[in-house]
């Protein structure tokens, strides 16, 4: 999916990944008339965005990156 997102964005298209498709996969199977043994895991919207929403806020690096051991003491707010 990441390659599809990068390719689409390189052409000026916007994307939106749909990870929750697994929660309603049977309804997608019916709606898309998928053949037997085809099971959707993720979805991807691709199109021209109406506006530029900017970058979503991300967690600070010290909240997600640990070297040597898992240490949450550095990521707690004081």
Give a short synopsis of this structure.
The chain is α+β, with helices and mostly antiparallel strands and 78 residues long. It is built from 3 helices and 2 strands; from the N terminus they run H-E-H-E-H. It has one domain (2-74): NADH Oxidase.
Kindly, what is the distance between the CA atoms of the first and last residues, rounded to a whole number of angstroms?
A: 37 Å
CATH homologous superfamily assignment: NADH Oxidase
**Structure summary, number of beta strands:** 2
Low-pLDDT residue intervals, each spanning 5 or more residues:
none
Strand content: 5-15%
**Helix fraction by DSSP (H/I, runs of at least 4):** 25-40%
Question: In CATH terms, what is the architecture?
Answer: 3-Layer(aba) Sandwich
For this structure, the CATH topology is NADH Oxidase
Radius of gyration (CA) equals 18 Å
Class from secondary-structure proportions: alpha+beta
In total, the number of domains comes to 1
How is the topology of this model organized?
Blueprint: H1 2-10, E1 14-18, H2 25-31, E2 43-47, H3 61-64
Antiparallel strand pairs: 1-2
Name the features.
3 helices, NADH Oxidase, extended, two-stranded antiparallel sheet, alpha+beta, 78 residues, 2 strands
Task: Explain how this protein is built.
The protein has about 80 residues and is α+β, with helices and mostly antiparallel strands. It has one domain: NADH Oxidase (3-Layer(aba) Sandwich), CATH 3.40.109. It has 3 helices and 2 strands. It is extended, with a radius of gyration of 18 Å.
């Amino acid at each position: 999916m990441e390659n599809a997102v990068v390719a689409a964005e390189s052409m000026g298209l916007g994307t939106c990944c749909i990870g929750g498709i697994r929660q309603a996969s049977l309804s997608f199977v019916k709606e898309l008339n998928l053949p037997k043994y085809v099971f959707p895991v993720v979805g991807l919207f691709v199109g021209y965005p109406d506006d530029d929403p900017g970058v979503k806020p991300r967690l600070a690096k010290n909240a997600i990156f640990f070297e040597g051991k898992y240490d949450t003491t550095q990521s707690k707010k004081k």
